[in-house]
């Protein structure tokens, strides 16, 4: 029996789920960001300015949707420069467009926000004092989930966090496995190994790729933090509820180059179709894996993989001729039947 891992109905919408504007430390206004991303083929944008939750629904139109969200940080409180301190950054996405109240708010962390915006911020409970610890970070995630948000764990490499840190965090729905802004700073922010580590040691999550753009408009194109990482969301229609439902269910993939067009399993095999690729691979929960490679200047556009009952989970990686990747989330075998 055929099981589509991307829903058969609906269409893919290109999204950037990590973005900064002039409300915090970005260099473009929300209006400018919409114009720029829409003109480059994006349908979904979350303007996740630091520490404040802002409704950008006034930017929505029939072909463009904003997801309400913001980024919250918890940083080591120890002597020395910030560049040597561990920090945990989380994106909180409102599951409903009417959610306008921040959680775990503290104006002392709004270092790049105007006083006018800080004073207008609605927040739940009292001023929240943060300590860099798994307990604090898990409490923030729990408060967010209980208040109608889903939580994305951002850029572990830039944050100086490793498996000892992030495998103790529970309750986020996705890990950001590629971050354009960090990559263009010279940081290795393709974190697919961290994703597998979390899956194997801590639990089930999805994966995203995003720009985290701060609008380096004065940089040459090769160093621009626009239009690198993106998340392709398969949804029935371009509405807040439909897109959020797809995010919650994991009906999306992460990329900073290739596109995946179709993915399904049938009779103990997995089938994938994609844009031009040099490599297509399948990774499992264990050591068993499989790689197909194009030869003699040719390209691959599809592959078929055997699935074994011992695989635990399967996920797929498409690599293009420039070394850019598209990654599916991990699909655990109990989500479908392996014959």
Q: What's the gyration radius in Å?
A: 20 Å
Could you tell me the mean pLDDT? 96
Number of helices: 7
Distance between the termini: 9 Å
What's the CATH architecture name of the largest domain? Alpha-Beta Barrel
CATH homology superfamily name of the largest domain: Metal-dependent hydrolases
Measured by DSSP, the beta-strand proportion falls in 25-35%
CATH class placement of the largest domain: Alpha Beta
- Helix/strand order, N-terminal first: EEHEEEEHHEHEHHEEHEEEEEEEEE
Low-confidence stretches: none
Shape: globular
Q: Write down how many β-strands occur, each being a DSSP E stretch of 2 or more residues.
A: 19
What would the CATH topology of the largest domain be? TIM Barrel
Provide keyphrases for this structure.
339 residues; alpha+beta; TIM Barrel; Immunoglobulin-like; 10-stranded mixed beta sheet; 7 helices; 17% helix; globular
Summary, kept brief:
The chain is α+β, with helices and mostly antiparallel strands and 339 residues long. It has 2 domains: 247 residues, TIM Barrel (Alpha-Beta Barrel); 81 residues, Immunoglobulin-like (Sandwich), CATH 2.60.40. Helix content is 17%, strand content 29%.
What is the topological layout?
Layout: E1 3-4, E2 11-16, H1 30-39, E3 44-45, E4 65-66, E5 69-75, E6 87-94, H2 115-120, H3 134-146, E7 149-153, H4 163-166, E8 174-179, H5 180-184, H6 192-201, E9 206-210, E10 230-235, H7 240-249, E11 252-255, E12 260-266, E13 269-277, E14 279-284, E15 289-293, E16 300-306, E17 313-319, E18 325-328, E19 331-332
Parallel strand pairs: 2-3, 3-4, 7-8, 8-9
Antiparallel strand pairs: 1-12, 2-10, 5-6, 6-7, 10-11, 11-18, 12-13, 13-16, 14-15, 14-17, 17-18, 17-19
